[in-house]
Amino acid sequence: MHPTEPLDILHHFANVPDPRDARFITHRLLDLLVIALCATLSGAKSFEDMAAFGRAKETWLRSLGLALPCGIPSHDTFRDLFCHLSPAAFQDAFTAWINAVCGRLGFKHVQIDGKAQRGSRGLNGTCLHLVSAWVGANFLTLGQVAVEDKSNEITAIPKLLKLLELEGALVSIDAMGCQKEIAHAIRDTKADYLLQVKGNQPTLQADIIAKFEAAFAADYVGFSHDLWVSQERGHGREEERICSVLYDLEGLSTREEWVDLQAIIRVARTRWVGDKETHEESYYISSRRSTAAEFGSAARGHWGIENGLHWVLDVIFREDDSQLKDRTAGENLGMLRRVVASLVRQDHSKGSVSGKLLRAAWNDDFRLHLLNLLSD
Questions:
Q1: Is the Cβ–Cβ distance between 58 and 73 less than 8 Å?
Q2: Tens digit of pLDDT for each residue in 107-117?
């Protein structure tokens, strides 16, 4: 199949401002962005790869409707563009598609977590961190915000929340995000929060543990509660999870400081591998009065972002291996990789993410099929 009509995704980039000096422009912005997207869909990991892909697929790219008046851009041209392109504008180019997918598939649980690009570490010891919002059920990245180091994720999360439409969702964040301001920011989006509680909130943690100990001692008599037990066996191990929820919040000394607080949650995990037994407990707070089954599933599902997104970025896209030091270029490429990872997962044919990237590299028809998913 050879496309005979202009590619329908070109409109996504129509409103992206060109940061380059008009006097020195020889390659159209639209051409550069489409080549970068197609190359990344085909496994490109660098600006050199983008230029090489363009040279190999110039005839095919022209069939999509790209003008390419001066031929294929060099890797330096791609580098210069991504170093100066507005990350917010580039992210906005994909917003309509992301919203359309969410509207079609719906989403109930959004995970927010940060990931370091370790290869970007500079002389000052910091590296680029990208805080992403991810819908694990749909393998879809909703958006991202860049920060200079992990400690700044606290300030980045409210900025990310302002970019997203989350009404009705349950938003989970690990213990670093257990901050009163973040809870307010989530509720401002008309979503609910599920925040893990650890030692960075010592009073709240102590109160929650005491509350559950009192409930256990009374065998839950007199406590409004819900329980859910999940068991799994396989690969030589057995795991049991017990999620306990208390809705009676009397005795929490900081209760009024947490906006719309409705429930406290304890998730106990016991794992047996051969003769070895391990046990761990995690605690959460939520603005939603939900079931133990939903909270237990959401608490477990939160860590799906590690395997579903971060693993893909590191192992398949080799993100940690990138030595790119420019923060703007790193943020833009980070968004491009996340969009491609999401796009590939919207294809429901058989095969892994890495296998589909290989198919896209080898097969023009399959690559076009993936691109056309952006037209949905």
A1: no
A2: 889 999 988 77
Q: What pLDDT, on the 0 to 100 scale, is given for residue 5?
A: 45
Looking at residue 288, its amino acid is: R
Query: CA–CA distance from 127 to each of 116, 130, 142, 330, 367 (Å)?
Result: 7, 10, 23, 10, 33
What local confidence, expressed as pLDDT, does residue 295 receive?
96
| Amino acid found at 345 | R
Indicate whether this model's pTM tops 0.85. yes
- Do residues 27 and 77 make contact, with C-beta atoms less than 8 angstroms apart? yes
Query: Average pLDDT over the chain, rounded to whole?
Result: 89
Residues facing residue 226 across a β-bridge: 245
Count of CB atoms situated within 10 Å of the CB of 181 = 12
What residues does 232 pair with on adjacent strands? Answer: 239
Higher pLDDT pick, 223 / 376: 223
- Written as six digits, the tokens of 354 are 């890495």
Question: In this structure, what token pair is assigned to residue 8?
Answer: 């329908």
The pLDDT value given to residue 4? 41
d(CA 187, CA 225): 23
- Give the span between the Cα atoms of 330 and 336, in whole angstroms: 10
Region for 269 from its dihedrals, namely left if φ exceeds 0, alpha if ψ lies in -120 to 50, beta otherwise: beta
Print the SS3 string covering the chain.
CCCCCCCHHHHHHCCCCCCCCHHHCCCCHHHHHHHHHHHHHCCCCCHHHHHHHHHHCHHHHHHCCCCCCCCCCCHHHHHHHHHHCCHHHHHHCCHHHHHHHHHHHCCCEEEEEEEEEHHHCCCCCCCEEEEEEEECCCCEEEEEEEECCHHHHHHHHHHHHHCCCCCCCEEEECHHHCCHHHHHHHHHCCCEEEEEECCCCHHHHHHHHHHHHHHHHCCCCCCCEEEEEEEEEECCEEEEEEEEEECCCCCCCCHHHCCCCCEEEEEEEEEEECCEEEEEEEEEEECCCCCHHHHHHHHHHHCHHHHHHHHHHHHHCCHHHCCCCCHHHHHHHHHHHHHHHHHHHCCCCCCCHHHHHHHHHHCHHHHHHHHHHHHC
